[in-house]
Amino acid sequence: MNLQENWSQCLPKIKPQIDDSVVFDSFIHDLQARTYEGNSIILTTPFEFNVGIVEEYLPLMAEIYNSEHNTHYELKLLSDSQFEKEYNKKELQEEEEIPEFSDNLNPDFTFDNFVVGNSNRIAQNASLAVAMKPGTAYSPLFIYSNSGLGKTHLLNAIGNYIKKKDPKKMVLYASSEQFVNDYISSLGNGTIKEFNLRYRNIDTLLIDDIQFIASKESSSEMFFNIFNSLQNDNKQIVITSDKPPKDLKGMENRLVSRFTNGLTVSIDTPEFETSKAILQKKLEIEKVDYPISEEVLDFISSHFNRDVRELEGSLKRLLFYKLVFGQSKESIDLEFALEAFADSYKTEETKTVQNDLTVDEIKKCVATYYNLSVSQINSKSRTSNIIVARHIAMYLVRNLISDMSFIQIGKEFGGRDHSTVMKACDKVEKNMKKDAMYKKAVQEIKKKLS
């Protein structure tokens, strides 16, 4: 006897228990028992608006069904259209076995070893929210930044978190270049069906550097269709790029529109504190077993912080230099680090060194420009205009007088710590890049000094 016959046998027993015979004749009599799902029997009704009416009778009908057949099932109710959408798709997937594939995730990239600072906090928070509730928090999540600031790390961290929480979840990480090559290859060898099954039946799609796909019309069309399919099924999509969606030249408007429909976040260049924390985390991961002074970490954090790759590359260079030239040294100090980076840490501004200038002359010139006294620049005052002048004076001393260490400059400015000088110089360089009037002021002071 099949499921529907079992159900039909119970209808004569159910009818007397329903208070309103019109309800039974109109809504319950035509229910169909369609399939089993775990400990439940799925019933269907022709119209979606029937579901809300019949649901209140489900416990009573389940009790009668179980009593009649000595079973312990629950009853669930769907409209015919809901059932077709959900269960026909499941049956189709069972018939068309999804090919095995690698998730391409890098297990070393996790949230645990991602250093969070002001420059990336929003992106990290959004990524973690997505990983905790994929498909419900923000989809798509669009992360953009310059190269080397942690986009790929966050993509992999999302995937690794989801897989750790539920190993059955199907996650796929791919660069857009990999996606294009995979698509072209499937067209060439006649495996486009497998390509579609792989990309359309995953739970989370992680696409890196979407800008690569912009000018590739056929690949963009395929990605658009896959994107829509996953979105309609409430799957999670995370995309990274070197630009925000609206600045993706060559990208179809319909794709840009869908990217902006989710949450867009950015990652900025790491500030001094985040840069230093990244270095400390890297040393912990590398298990470096000899001391490296705080001065050295401050130095690298101030001079090699354009992106995370530059920070890590600088640290590798220092450790290699220690291996080759410092085997007898028990620790790395600032003097040794300056030797290691002698040919690379000076900025373009540093190339115009003037040995005839003195620290006092620079301080006096800056003070005059800002209508201050030298004693105010040397003071502990935190007034904004004094801080600006003090930072610029430190920066100019560093760049216009040769062989002045951060420690020496700190002593010249009221006995300040070397790290304070490093941060000041770093801040001036960043302000010059983003503030034209600020840059003009620095250039005018330099011109007066020359």
UniProtKB/TrEMBL annotation:
Q: Quick check: keyword Signal in the entry? A: no
Keyword S-adenosyl-L-methionine (UniProt): no
Which residues of the sequence carry a binding annotation for ATP?
A: G148, G150, K151, T152
- List the SUPFAM superfamilies: P-loop containing nucleoside triphosphate hydrolases, TrpR-like
One GO MF annotation is: ATP binding
Q: Per the annotation, which location comes first and is thus the protein's main one? A: cytoplasm
Q: Gene Ontology cellular component?
A: cytoplasm; plasma membrane
Q: Which GO terms describe its biological process?
A: DNA replication initiation; regulation of DNA replication
Region (Domain IV, binds dsDNA): which ranges? 323-450
Question: Where would I find the Chromosomal replication initiator DnaA C-terminal domain in this sequence?
Answer: 358-428
Q: Read off the CDD domains from this record.
A: AAA (cd00009), Bac_DnaA_C (cd06571)
Domain of life from the UniProt record: Bacteria
What Pfam families does its record include?
Bac_DnaA, Bac_DnaA_C
Subcellular localization = Cytoplasm
Q: Which residues belong to any copy of the AAA+ ATPase domain?
A: 137-268
The alphabetized UniProt keywords are: ATP-binding, Cytoplasm, DNA replication, DNA-binding, Lipid-binding, Nucleotide-binding
- What are the boundaries of the region Domain I, interacts with DnaA modulators? 1-97
PANTHER family from the entry?
Answer: CHROMOSOMAL REPLICATION INITIATOR PROTEIN DNAA
* Summary of subunit composition and partner proteins: Oligomerizes as a right-handed, spiral filament on DNA at oriC.
**UniProt function note:** Plays an essential role in the initiation and regulation of chromosomal replication. ATP-DnaA binds to the origin of replication (oriC) to initiate formation of the DNA replication initiation complex once per cell cycle. Binds the DnaA box (a 9 base pair repeat at the origin) and separates the double-stranded (ds)DNA. Forms a right-handed helical filament on oriC DNA; dsDNA binds to the exterior of the filament while single-stranded (ss)DNA is stabiized in the filament's interior.
Its UniProt domain note says: Domain I is involved in oligomerization and binding regulators, domain II is flexibile and of varying length in different bacteria, domain III forms the AAA+ region, while domain IV binds dsDNA.
Family, similarity comment: Belongs to the DnaA family.
Give the protein name, as stated in the record: Chromosomal replication initiator protein DnaA
- State the species of origin: Kandleria vitulina DSM 20405
Encoding gene per record: dnaA
